[in-house]
Amino acid sequence: MALPDTTSNGAGAQTPIGVISRMREDIQAVFDRDPAARTVLEVTLAYPGLHAIWMYRAAHWLWEHRLCLLGRLLSELARWLTGIEIHPGATIGRRLFIDHGMGVVIGETTEIGDDVLIYQGVTLGGTSAKKEKRHPTIEDHVMISAGAAVIGPVRIGRGSRIGAGAVVVSSAPPYSTIVGIPGKAIEGESTRQDVAGLDHVHLPDPVARAMQGLIDKLNRIGVRIEELEERQDCLEDKINPNVSPNISPNASPNVSPNLHENISGAPAAPTPVDPETPKNR
Predict the structure, then answer these.
(1) What is the structure's pLDDT at 5?
(2) H, E, C per residue of the chain
(3) What mean pLDDT value characterizes the chain?
(4) Cα dist from 3 to 98, 138, 178, whole Å
(5) Cβ(120)–Cβ(137) under 8 Å?
(6) CA nearest 134: which of 115, 161, 162, 106?
(7) Cα→Cα distances 266→38, 252, 254, 261, 269, Å
(8) 0.70 exceeded by the pTM?
(9) CA distance readout (Å), 138 to 99, 108, 144, 237
(10) Peptide bond before 245: cis, by omega within 30 degrees of 0?
């Protein structure tokens, strides 16, 4: 029996493959992305993310054949066994790997492409109560870190990375890095390679970059102000070269003698007295 093609719209049409071939492909995806994987038996028996995907594929087959109740019951059983909730109506491509997996929620109208990596605590949720496309579309080779949430009918471009704890509410172009709350996309940060080869720890921080840019600009303004002050001092010295440093050049010429005495240090001349002026008695 061959499963129907469950790849997303962006992944392109592919020939359906058999159940055993698909299971082998899923197991190989675990070895490609998890260095802790040792043997095929261990991966087959001890990886809940793998079990959730296999049970989803069976539930999705039931859902596509209008056995919706059975599909929902099987997905609930998978949730109880693995801690991963995948709606049977979701569309998931090939080689999806859910690492650890506890707390992952994938909604009904979610579309996931090929070679996607999802860590624990990820939510691919909806924002509308209407029966319409209300969940995100994840293109090929996307990595979603632990605790991230992608909300609404947004599209995450091919090869993008979503940092841990990010809340994404808007679409992102291909090969972008998305971090923060709400998520901010930085184009061109993600190298064009398979998600398994990416460094998931060293993600850029747009807020820190903005703050550093502001600090650098303030430092340049401070240096410029100091240069302007030095030029102003030189210009004042050239305009008023003979002004005493102890006397302000704007001082009034009608200065009292006592003030001149205080400034120059010499005694002021006595004020002459008019002999015809009668003294006050």
Answers:
(1) 45
(2) CECCCCCCHHHCCCCCCEHHHHHHHHHHHHHHHCCCCCCHHHHHHHCHHHHHHHHHHHHHHHHHCCCHHHHHHHHHHHHHHHCCEECCCCEECCCCEECCCCCCEECCCCEECCCCEECCCCEEECCCCCCCCCCCEECCCCEECCCCEEECCCEECCCCEECCCCEECCCECCCEEEECCCCEEEECCCCCCCHHHCCCCCCCCHHHHHHHHHHHHHHHHHHHHHHHHHHHHHHHHHHCCCCCCCCCCCCCCCCCHHHHHHHHCCCCCCCCCCCCCCCCC
(3) 79
(4) 20, 21, 34
(5) no
(6) 106
(7) 100, 19, 17, 5, 9
(8) no
(9) 17, 13, 10, 69
(10) no
Phi, psi of 105 (to 5 degrees): -130, 125
What would the two tokens of residue 29 be?
A: 């995806």
Nearest to 142 by CA among 154, 157, 152, 122: 157
| Residue with more model confidence, 197 or 124 | 124
- Least-confidence region, from 78-82, 123-127, 156-160, 232-236: 232-236
Q: Which two tokens stand for residue 279?
A: 């003294």
Q: Token pair for residue 249? A: 């050049």
Tokens of 165: 């704890």
At the topology level of CATH, where does 9-204 sit? UDP N-Acetylglucosamine Acyltransferase; domain 1 (2.160.10)
21 versus 212: which is more confidently predicted? 21
